Amino acid sequence: MIDNPIKKLISGEGATELVVQLQKIVDLSVSKFLKSHKIESVDYRIIINHPSREDYGDYSTNVALMLSSRLKLTPEALAQSICDEINDMIRSHQNIAPISWRNGVKTDDFKVSDVLEKCDIAGSGFINMWLNEIFLITQTSRLLSKLEPVTTTQINSKKQTGLLTGTKIMMEFAHPNTHKEFHIGHLRNISLGESLVRLLERAGSEVFRANYEGDVGLHVAKAIYGVKKKLALRHPGSGRLIPMEIGKSHDSPGVEVLRKLLPAEKAKFLGEGYALGSKEYENEDAKKEIMDLNKSIYNNPYQVDLWEETRGWSLEYFDTVYKRLGSRFDRLFFESEVEKKGRDKVKEGVKKGIFIEDKDGSIYFPGEKYGLNNCVFVTREDYATYEGKEIALEELEYKTFPFDLDIHVVANEQINFFQIAFKAVEMVHPVQKGRQYHLPYGMVNLKTGKISSRTGQVITADHLLDQAKLKILKLLKPGYSKEDQEEIAEKTAVAAVKYTMLRVGPKMDIAFDLEESVSFDGDSGPYLLYTYARCRSVLRRAVISSKKQVASSKYDEINKTHTTYYLLLTTEERSLLRAFYRFEEVVDDAVVNLSPNLICSYLFELAQKFNLFYSRHSILKPDNKEPAYAELSSATAGEQTKDNREPAYAELSSATAGEQTKDNRDPAYAELSSATAGEQTKDNREDIRHPSGSRMDSLGVEKSVKNFRLFLTQATSQIIKEGLYLLGIETVERM
């Protein structure tokens, strides 16, 4: 087993370009200090992290703490010296040459002052660095230009240069068994697998979507037995089951009725059949019939009555679930296609000394030789066990898609299984050594017992989604068409369930609470969708839609024109701006650690920052009572006439000028909650005046503030949309 399979696939520097640049700045500063003190070369590693608090800066390094004892200096003194060197580099606008970065790519050359605003020390020797605000804006513009418009109903096939460019990864996930319903545990599996596929694709890897389904075994025999019994297909005299051949003379009227049912209804019937078969299995006579049926399925499933048709019902049902959840697969693998091959491979392995035949005729893998436990791979009845099938499965998967890594998303209760199976696989197929990885995930339990299953046995995926949808429909405000209401409720229900499955680390258990998952407040999928819809509503009212956006380059020009304003950012604006550049770092961390929950945490924090900003500041009609606004008005008095004539200013103004009067009448204006709409209506009626009470003689300040706030809104909406895409969640434009 591999501790971290992704790290071994990364070629070159795994950090983002910005972190590499900061490491270089710190490295040069340390080198200057060592040289000025005539200290010979010292080995050290520069680690760049984010401080625990925003007021400590954007980045921090503990290099002084690491070096101080070796240089016989106090950490504080060394940190101050390094910090002074960095501040000197900022003041002198020192230029840094291109740095080798990732996949043979070099960074652009840059001036330290273009990246950093200042450096300071804190605590017992930490060095804190603040990014230049103009740099933050430029970084955000660059990020937005890289975020392609994406949809979650179709997987973006375009590969982007990233951490895993040139690699090939198979993601094996979902794994429902035929003849059973798709339950709540499968929901976590497919949510996790789908998100990881998208993350790995974003990192540049070619990803193959595999799904291994159990279509033979005792559970299938129990289900078919139960289905036949439910259909009452019994001989009047003996009471034994009548052999059936679908499409021939033994067809039952009951089967004809089943064929006309919806996929979910067929799956429900199969689930009930399985429950009945499991109960009957406790009876000795029924148990013998089920065991005989199981043997027939293993020998040749296609000759077993009802097997192929009921299997088809399951696959048809699974397809509806996959579509509803926004997932697809490149290839379905089945136990029925690898059982015999696996059995034969294990028998060949006996001759090579890999496996051992026991006295009862079974064949086992001597796991104790490798610190594992011994395990049967072929039973005495001559069936390949799950482990035995794995031998053939891995060979088939590798022939189908020659991968660098095969990630198996399977519950943590199977950890021992994969440890044994992978060891045996690499001995039978040496090429597989180091290519297999089991990503275990925790169990899903209900926090309360309020959700009841239709079968009384398991909580099915469609039932849970339907329950979430009903609750969301009750929470939606009136005013939507029936079609819009249906679309919003469906997408929000899927978002609610998926986000709940993803927002904690994969290895942690989940206590699922339906009420919490559908809440529009707090850490939930609906909360993020609501925040995105709020951003889109503001942008629609500013005539900035997905088809008519203000280009990032125009914002860059405005940055140069109105740099005075950026020195006067409000606390909420600055906090939001400082969140954007971290998105790429979070995505990389989520890829390396196979942890979509990192994306969830980031998006929730970003949404909180935006909603705080939104609640305290008007975007379309900036409040002239804000201290920074008044200061800017005073600082820029007399310059607005010139500013208003600048091309960049005029171009952006033309996109938004004249819209404010009709904003209050725009239907989109009332899309959000009544409280929000009321707040915005009031804001839109505000008369922009100088604190002295006199009318401002220029709209330059107002437009500068407004355009910058629209920039923050646009950035928030695009990052949330991209982040949700990576989670496998589709956004809604209105809510």
Automatic annotation (TrEMBL):
Belongs to the class-I aminoacyl-tRNA synthetase family. Transmembrane segments: none annotated. It holds the Pfam family Arg_tRNA_synt_N. Residues 680-690 have a biased composition (Basic and acidic residues). InterPro entries: Arg-tRNA-ligase (IPR001278), Arg-tRNA-synth_N (IPR005148), Arg-tRNA-synth_N_sf (IPR036695), ArgRS_core (IPR035684), DALR_anticod-bd (IPR008909), Rossmann-like_a/b/a_fold (IPR014729), tRNAsynth_Ia_anticodon-bd (IPR009080). This is arginine--tRNA ligase. Residues 630-697 are annotated as: Disordered. Residues 528-735 form the DALR anticodon binding domain. GO terms for biological process: arginyl-tRNA aminoacylation. It catalyses: tRNA(Arg) + L-arginine + ATP = L-arginyl-tRNA(Arg) + AMP + diphosphate. Signal peptide: none annotated. GO terms for molecular function: arginine-tRNA ligase activity; ATP binding. Residues 20-131 form the Arginyl tRNA synthetase N-terminal domain. Its EC number is 6.1.1.19. GO terms for cellular component: cytoplasm. Keywords: Aminoacyl-tRNA synthetase, ATP-binding, Ligase, Nucleotide-binding, Protein biosynthesis. It is an enzyme of class 6 (ligase). PANTHER family: ARGININE--TRNA LIGASE, CYTOPLASMIC, ARGINYL-TRNA SYNTHETASE.
